[in-house]
Fold:
Amino acid sequence: MTESTIWWLLAGGAVIAELLTGTFFLLMISLGMAAAALAAHSGAGSTTQMLAAAIIGGGAVVVCYFVKKKRPHDPSARADRSVNLDIGEKVLIEEWSADGTAAVKYRGAIWTAIHRTGSTPSAGLHQIAELVGSRLLVDKL
Structure:
């Protein structure tokens, strides 16, 4: 069996392992193995093949790690509109209590609304940003 065939089999095995485990990084390792297979097809020596696999596969893993780390995180479930359809809806707050809460009528019931820390409560139209237990966390519009 030629060296390129071994590299292609290893790359295929890494893809199968990725499909079974769901880790994206194994695909990047398989890219490195495919690069080594191409190096073997071009007649490069074993050392060059190993270097190609390590540099391409390892570099792809490092790049994917930093891209994933830099990407903003998904919002929590209590602030995600696809999980809770109340997020983004508007409510009218007529007055705030001294304790920083307000009673608002929303969906036919009286709810307790709270404001974000650091913002001053004011009457008017607000948007629901998050559900905290049975309270509506609202932002001023």
